[in-house]
Amino acid sequence: MNQHTNPDREARNILISNDRGGYTIPTEGLYPYQWNWDSAIAALGFAQFDIDRAWIEIETLFTGQWTDGMVPHILFHQQDDGYFPGPDVWGCDGPIPSSGIIQPPLAATMARKIWEQDTDAGEARIRELFPQMLAWHQWIMKWRLDDHGAVCTTHPWEAGRDNAPDWDKAMARIDASDVGEYQRRDTSHVNSEDRPTKFDYDRYIKLVQIGRQAGWDQQALLTQNPFRVADPTMTFTTLRAARDLLAISEQLGLDAEGLGADIADLEVGASSLWNEDLGVFDSRDARTKEWSGSISNASYLCWYAGIESEKMLDRLKAVLASVPFPVPSYDTSMPNFDARRYWRGPTWAFMNMMIGFGLAEMGHEQRAEELRVKTKELISTYGFAEYFDPISGSPAGGNAFTWTAAVWLHWAGRD
Question: What is the mean pLDDT of the chain?
């Protein structure tokens, strides 16, 4: 354990050192490209000391937007042989070499926050970005909804919560026996016990191969892709982004036809993710209709999406009181809890920030502040790790991590 004496300076330095000129990598070595939701969080961090650079981050992300509106989860701006799977494996045909899947749509929400920090300086930037952000929203509404209006993930990487227990049942049904040989790079950078297993990784690659064989044709993948799970992360972030797009359009007099109806549909979809037996927002397999039975940190993004839940609030109070460094990515009482393995238990500072945003906006300031203070203590004591053990606080995954630094600058470190 080491006390970080000047975390403000340290956080700025991390963003500056991870800056690749227009986009920010999550961390040196482990993640050498521009990741979609990481980038939106990074922009929020830059906005605390360089608002022009914040806008550039989001603008660069949208340079990779496909003609159909999709914004990929990774943009391979320059070749790096140290990362697998690279652009040659994905075989995509966007304006910039990229992956063929998305990530939770945080860009509109973070762009609105940056704009509200300086509305005059940001107006031209957000006007320019608006049609692109709206097109991405419309793409999600077209291709990712289940029968209830909840938003589905079509690859564990797409929800950003790669090895969350939410996907275990759907993953177990995937035959990856013919996936072939490949060389993982992530475990050469960090402890393999902090990362997804080979069983998981085989299936990640199999799903990429299925997508590539379909030429990333979304209509074809509706039938060919065996993995389709309606998920709180995708649903709550899409609903929140739609609300923010509507607010931007109303304030600037921009055309956003259909957004109101989309929000109504997404609210129904979000409500459909309530697992009454578990008393929590849960993931549901869109193919089998089976619940995941998972209490995750994504379950607590309901307030971020503008959805109130007394039961979730009671659960959060219990977590804040019982877990030293909340919010664990998977509930500590659940049988598959693993304190260090990526999304099967560790605490993620940026998820805490988003939960905190929602709590504060919906009038739960005391809980938001409690969570912020605990996150501040976690980072100031254990540093800017990718994620943390929720029991001991010990850092895990990559170090000098962009989004943890951004969380410090925008939220955790500010009194």
Answer: 96
Beta bridge partners of 311: none
Catalytic one of 162, 166, 244, 331? 162
Q: How far apart are CA 90 and CA 196, in angstroms?
A: 20
Q: Which domain holds residue 291?
A: 7-316
Does residue 68 belong to any structural domain of this protein? yes
In tens, the pLDDT along 307-337 reads 999 999 999 999 999 999 999 999 999 999 9
DSSP-assigned letter for residue 340: S
* Class of residue 348 by CB neighbours under 10 A (exposed 0-12, middle 13-18, buried 19+): buried
For the chain, the C-alpha Rg in angstroms (whole number) is 20
pLDDT < 50 positions in the chain: 1
Within 253-348, where are the H helices?
Answer: 259-271, 310-322
Q: How many CA atoms lie within 13 A of 161 on its CB side?
A: 32
Active site residue 19: no
Catalytic residue selected from 186, 200, 282, 386: 386
pLDDT of 216 reads 98
Whole-angstrom distance, CA of residue 357 vs CA of residue 354? 5
Dihedral of alpha carbons 266, 272, 274, 275, sign:
negative
Tell which residue, 183, 220, 208, has the closest CA to residue 82: 183
Whether 204 is covered by a domain: the verdict is yes
How far, in Å, CA of 347 to CA of 269, rounded? 26
Residues ≥6 apart with Cβ < 8 Å to 386: 26, 27, 30, 348, 395, 396, 397, 398, 399, 401, 404
Rounded Cα distance, 221 and 225, in Å = 5
Active-site residue, 386 included:
yes
The Cα-based distances of 183 to 83, 130, 186, 201 in angstroms read 9, 40, 9, 11
**376 located within any domain:** no
Answer whether residue 404 is part of any domain: no
Residue 11 has which token pair?
Answer: 């956080």
**Per-residue model confidence (pLDDT) at position 148:** 98
Vertex 413, ends 409 and 415: CA angle to 5°?
120
Closest-CA residue to 135 (of 241, 23, 222, 53) = 241
The total number of structural domains in the chain stands at 1
